[in-house]
Target: Acyl-CoA dehydrogenase C-terminal domain-containing protein
Amino acid sequence: MPIYKAPVNDTLFILNDVLGIERYHNLTGFADTTPDMLEAIISEAAKLAEEVLFPINLSGDQQGCRRHDDGSVSVPKGFKEAYDLYCEGGWLGLAAPEEFGGQGLPYTLHTAVAEYMSSANMSLMMYPGLTQGAIAAILVHGSEEQKRTYLPKLVEGTWTGTMNLTEPHCGTDLGLLRSKAVPNGDGSYKISGQKIFISAGEHDMAENIIHLVLARIEGAPEGVKGISLFIVPKFKLDASGEPAERNNVSCGAIERKMGIHGNSTCVMNYDEATGYLIGTENKGLNAMFVMMNEARLAVGMQGLSIAEVAYQNAANYARERIQGRSLSGPKAPDKKADPIIVHPDVRRTLMTIKAFNEAGRAFTLWTALKSDIAHRSDNEEERQAADDILSLMTPILKGVMTDKGLEHAVMAQQVFGGHGYIEEHGMSQYVRDARIAMIYEGANGIQALDLVGRKLAMNGGRAVMALFKEVGDFCEENRNDERLSSYTKALKKGLNDLQAATMWFMQNAMAKPDNAGAGSTDYMHLFGLVVLGYMWARMAKTAQEKLAAGETARADYLKNKLTTATFFMERIMPETALRRARIETGADTLMAPDAGAF
Amino acid sequence: MPIYKAPVNDTLFILNDVLGIERYHNLTGFADTTPDMLEAIISEAAKLAEEVLFPINLSGDQQGCRRHDDGSVSVPKGFKEAYDLYCEGGWLGLAAPEEFGGQGLPYTLHTAVAEYMSSANMSLMMYPGLTQGAIAAILVHGSEEQKRTYLPKLVEGTWTGTMNLTEPHCGTDLGLLRSKAVPNGDGSYKISGQKIFISAGEHDMAENIIHLVLARIEGAPEGVKGISLFIVPKFKLDASGEPAERNNVSCGAIERKMGIHGNSTCVMNYDEATGYLIGTENKGLNAMFVMMNEARLAVGMQGLSIAEVAYQNAANYARERIQGRSLSGPKAPDKKADPIIVHPDVRRTLMTIKAFNEAGRAFTLWTALKSDIAHRSDNEEERQAADDILSLMTPILKGVMTDKGLEHAVMAQQVFGGHGYIEEHGMSQYVRDARIAMIYEGANGIQALDLVGRKLAMNGGRAVMALFKEVGDFCEENRNDERLSSYTKALKKGLNDLQAATMWFMQNAMAKPDNAGAGSTDYMHLFGLVVLGYMWARMAKTAQEKLAAGETARADYLKNKLTTATFFMERIMPETALRRARIETGADTLMAPDAGAF
Model:
C-alpha cells in the first residue's frame, strides 16, 4: 500500500528559518504568520492530505471519471466527500481576499499547503486548482459585478472554474483559434466552438461550473490581437445569482489519457452558449495570462508533489525490501538478506530525488513569497523587484520542476523493480500523473522559449541582473566562512556557467534567434540548477547557524541537510558545465538538415 | 494514426558498409549474407513488421490480455494470426540450427530483423522472444533427448517458452527462492511454488508452453548453490512427443501493469507439476544465465525499437503540425503558421533521439556480430576476443539502451504536446511499454553493478583493455584525417574520461567496494557514451569514404550521417566529463546517513 507523510518539518524549516517569513509581517495577511500559527495551519493541512485525500488517490486512478449518455460526468468514489471537506476547511480560499469569503492569508502559505494536497491526490486537487486560476482572472480583470457574482461561490468551492484555450488545431499558437462570440445586443454574447483538453470541464462535485473561454468576437482582428475572454457558466444565473437555466455548453467526451484519471479532461462543445466578456474586448490573452502565470507556478509545484510522494514510497520500500547483501559485507546478518538501502546505487537514486525535492520546496516557497511581496507590499520598489524575480522564475519553476518531477518519479519507480511496474504499489500512477505536468500550461519547450525569448531581455535584463547579483553576493559574503566554502565554491562555479551562457546569448542570439532556441532547454535547466544550488547554499548556511547555536532538537535533521547539500554540490551542480557547453554549440548543426531528413 | 517504417537503408548501411559483414563469410551461416540476400530478407521482415504486426499494436494495448475463470488467457484480437504469420515466415528460427528446423542464419541478421518486429509490436514479439531464450538454454544445457523433444516445436513456434525466476519475495537475489522440486524416482520431479511476473506465462497462441523453472531440489544447499533448472511443460507429452495430459501448472492471475498490455504477465502456480531437470543439479543458475544473457541483448534492443518508432511519429508530427512561426521569420508564409519542425528546440529533441537510435542500431548489430563470432568462428583466439567484448557490452547495451529508450520515448511524446498524453496517437503506449525494459532481465542498477563488479575485472581486465585499445587505435589511425578529426578528437576526450574513471575504480574501489557501487550507473552511461561515440566515428568514416568515392545515390543520406555525427560529438559526448566527475566523488556522502534519514 502506498504511503504519504507530509514533510511538515521541512516546510517549517524553510518558511521560518531559511526565508524568515516573520520578517514580512508588514505585508497584508502576514500579521498572523507566527511560527505557532504556521505550524497549526500546516499540520491541519497535512492531516487532510494524509487522511482524506491520499487514501482515495490510487482508487481514483483505477476508477477514473465516467461520462454518461446525457453528457454528465461522475468523478471517482470518495472524491466528492473529500472535496467537500477540503472546501469546508477553507483551504480553497486560504489566500483569497476576505471580502469575497477568503482568509486573506499569504499565497506562500497556500503554496506550502498545496504541495501536500497534490502529493496526496493530484487529480482531485486539479478541480480546485483550476478554480484558483478562475478566481485570479476575475479578481484582476472582472468587473465589480462579476467579482460579486462569481468570486464568493468560487472561493467557497460551491462552484468550480475551468480554462478553455485549446482547440483541436490550436494549442500553443492561440492566434489560430476559431471559437466565435456573437453579440446578443444585451451585453452578452453567443459563444460557439469546440475546446479540447479541458481539465475539470464537467463533473458532479459542484453546483455550477464557471468556464473561462477564449473566443473571437465577430469581426475582430486576426491572430492573437482579436481574442477575448468570456465567462460561460454551465448554468446561467437567475436574478438572485443562483444557478438556473442550463447553458448550451456540454461535455462531448472524456479523453482517454495516460494518467490523472481522476480528473475529467473533457472535450467541451459550445453551441451558442451565453457568455459574458471579461476585461477588455480583444485583450483576452492578457486576462488569460493572469490565470496562466498562477497555474504555471501551481504546475511546477505538482512536479515537486509527485516527486515527493514517489520518493517517500521508494525510500520506504528500500528500507523494507530484503534482497542481496551489501557490497561491504552483510549489514543485517540475522536476516537472509540486507535491505536494499545498503546499496550505494539505491542511495544515489534516493538522494538525487531528495536533493531536488528539498531545494525544490525552498525554490517554490521563495518564489511564492516573491508573489506575495509583488502583490501585497506597500513599497513600490520592493514590489517591482519581487515581480521581476517572479516573472523570471515562473518558466524555470514550471519547466525544471516538472521535468524533474517525471524523471524522479521514474527513478523512484525503479527502486521497486518489477513491483514498480504493476499498478498496485502506485508507482506507475505517479509516473503517469507526473507526465502531464511537463505538457499542460505551456509545454516545457515553451517555458524555455519564454525564458530566453522574453524574460531574459525584459526591462533591459533587470531581473536576471538582480538575480545574478543576489546569488553572487551570497557567494561573496560567505566566501571566507570555511563551513560554507565548499557550497559557495560550487555555487559560484555554476553561476559563472550561467553568466557565460547568458553572455553567449547576448552575443550570438540577437542577430540569429535560432541560437537562443537551440540552447533554450539547456539554459532553462542551467538556470534551474543555479537557483536550486542557491537554495541549498542558503539552507546549508541556516543549518550551520542553527547547529552552531547549539540547537539539539533538530540536530539530526540539520546535519542531514548538510549532507544532502554536499551531495547536490558534488553530484548535481557540475551539470552546469555540460549545459553551458551545449548552449555554446549554437543552432547551425540543428538547422542544417531538411525537414525530410528527420 | 501511428506510423512505422522499418529503417531498412540504415540497417543495410551498418551491416554492409560499416561492419562489412561480407568479410565474415567464413563463419557458419554467413556464406549467404551477400548484400542482395541481406536486402531481400530484411525487406521481407520490414513488410511483416509494417503491415502485419504494427497495425495491431495500439489495439493490443487497449484490449490487453484477459484471464478467464478456468485460468486460460486470451491475447488481443489479431495477435494469433500475426504470430502464425511470423512463425510461418520462419522468423523465429532464423538463426536457430538447421538440425532443429532453423535456418542457421547469423544472429546478427536475427537482431536486425528483431528490431523492426519490436518497434512494430513489442508486446506480441515478447512471446517468441521468451521462446528464443528457452531455445538457447536447451541448446546449451539440454540433453540430446530434450533437444530432440523440445527444440523443433519451439523453433517452429508451435510451442512457446517462458522463464520462471521471480517469486514474490525474491527477484534479483535468487538465493532466496523457495520453489521446491521433489524427485519422483523416475528421473522427473514434482515442482511446487509460486512465480510472479512471468511474461507469456499463459496464452492461447501455442499448442504447448514450455516453462523453464528455477527451483530447489529437496535437501539442496541454501542460497544460489542449491538452485536447479527444470522444464515444466503446460501439457505433458505422450509417447510420441505430442501434448497430452494437462500438467499441474496454472495461471493464477494476470498482473495489472503500466504497459505491454498485449503480453500476458502471469502469476504462475506450480502445484506438484511434473518437471524435468535441465543441465546439472544445483547448477540451474548457469543454465538460466544462458537465457538471461541472450535476453539482455534482446531487451536492450527493445529500448532502441521503441525509441525508433516513437521518433518516427514525433518527426512526422513535427512536419505536419502547423503552429506558431519560426524564430527567424515565417517559413510557410502561405499558411497560417509554420510546421513546428522549424523550431530549433524541436529539432534538438528529434536529433537527440536520432543520434542515439542510429548509433544504438550500430552498437546492437556490432555486439550481435561479436556473438556470432564468439559462437561460430573456428579460430579460438578470435572467439575469445569476441566473447570478451560480448560479455562486457551486454550490461551496457541493456542498461544504456533501455534508459535511453524511455527517455527518448518521453521526448518524442513531448513533441505532441497534449496530443501525446491522450492514448489515441500511441505515444503514451510507447512510453509505458519502454518503461519495462529498464526493469526486467535485471534492473538497470543490476546491469551497472554487473559491469563494475564483474565485467571490468574479468580475466584481469582483458576485455576492457582490448576495447580501450580498439577505440584508441581508431582515434590514432584517423587523427591526421582532417575530415574526421573533429569526430576523433571528441571521441578521444570521451575515452580519456572513461579510462580515468576506470583507473579511479582500480585505485579506490578495491579496498572499498561502495566506491564502485556509488559510481556504477554513471560508469555504465559513461561507457555507453564512448561506445556510441565510437559507432558514430566509424559511421562518419564510412560515410566520408563513400562520399569521397563519389557515391551519389545515397549522398543525402550520407551527408545527414555526418551532420548527426557532428551533433552527437558536440552535444552528447561532453556528458562524459560530468559522469566522470560524479564517479570521482565516491561513496562517502551517500553512505553517511542512516537508513531512517531518507
